[in-house]
Amino acid sequence: MMNRQNHLRFVDYVGLLYCVLLILVWELPLFLVTFFIRRPEFSASFVTALHYFLVRKTGQLLTTPGLRWLTRPGSEHVHPVLTSRRYDPYHGNIYQAVARNGFKGFWVMQSSVQSPKPPASSDLTVLYLHGGGYMSLSPAHYSLFLLRLGEAILEQGMSVSIFALDYSLAPEHVFPTQLEETAAAYEYLVNEEHVPPEKILLAGDSAGGHLALSFLVDLANAHSSSGKALPKPRGLALMSPWLSLHNEFPSFKANERKDVLSPPFLRRVVREFLGHDAAAQDSPRRSRLNSPYLEFLTPEPAIEWDTVLPSWVWVSAGTDEIFFDSVKTWVGMVADRLGQGRVTFAVGPEKAHVWQWLETITDEVMKKDFLGRDVGDRRGFEATAAAGRVIARQVREHGQPDLR
Q: Which of 55, 66, 318, 361 is most buried by its number of CB atoms within 10 A?
C-alpha cells in the first residue's frame, strides 16, 4: 500500500544528469545575475536564496523517482534523530510504527517523550498530514519537526500525543487513496485508541493541508470514506496549505523567485496525484478540479465552511511564498463565515513555504546543537516552537474539555 520507490531507472539517471547540467550551465548563472541585479527584491540572504533556488529547480526538473532519491529515504532522516543524545534515552517511546488495514503511520510521541501514556489520556492528540506534493516525503522527514512541536506544547503544561499518517504516494497511488487512508486513521484514533474527537487537532502543511481540508469535507458528507458518522476534530492547524489546484493567484508570479515551490512543479503534481485519466472517473472526488474535495476557493458546489470546519482554525503562511495570496483569500472567506474569533491567521514576514519545517531540515548547525542537548532544553528551532506555543494557546482559549 505505502509503496515508496527510491530505485532509479535509466531515464531517471538521464534526468538527473540533465538537471545538473541545465542548472550549472544556464539556471545557476541566471539566478546569480538576477539575485545581484535585483537584490532589493530578495528578502532572504544569498545562502538562503541559493538553497531555495536549488530546491525549486530540482523539484521542477527531476522525475518523481529522481526527486525521491534526492530527498533520501526517510530512514536517513529519522535515524540521526532517534540516536542523538537528546532522544536516544527514549527511543523506545517515540516514533513507534502502527499498521492497520487501510493505513500506516507513526506515533511520534504518546503524551510525552520521557513517560508515554495512552493517547486517550493526553490533553491533545495531533493527527498530522505531511506535505510533499502527494508524491514525496514521509513522516520520517518530519520527525525532528514534530518532536520539537510536541516539546513546545509540553512546555506549556499540556500533554500531547502526535500521530503522523504515512499515506500512499502518487503516482503509484492516486487520489482519493490518501483521503481514504486519512479517514481510516481518524477512525483508528477515535474507535480503537478511544481518543475523544474533542481532543483531536487535525494538522498539515502544504499538500497535507489540502488533504486535511478534503478529509473534513468528506467527514461532513453523509457518504464519507469511513462509511460511519464520526464527529469533527476540535481544531485545525494548517501551515502554508495548498488550497487551489488552479494556482492562479498573483503571488504565484510575484514570489516565483523567492519560494521553494514553482508553478511548473505544482502542475505536474496535479497530473500525477489525480491520475492522467482523472477526468474520465465517475467519483466526484476525482472528476474535476473544482470538486469540493479538491478545490477550496472556488468549489462547485460551494462548501458550507461553518458546517465543515472545527470550532477553531489556525493558519500560517509566509509573505514570500507563492501560496500567500490564496491562503490570505481563504482565511478571509472562512473568517466571514465562522467569525473572526474562530480563525487565526499567522503571517510570516519575508518567509517562504512552510518555513517552520524548513528550518528543521536545512539548518544543520542548529540541528546538531539541538540534538546534542537534553529533552526539555527550550533553545533551538524557534519558528517550530512558536507554532507549538500558539497551538497550546488556541486549545486553551477555545476550551480544553475535561473528559477524563
A: 318
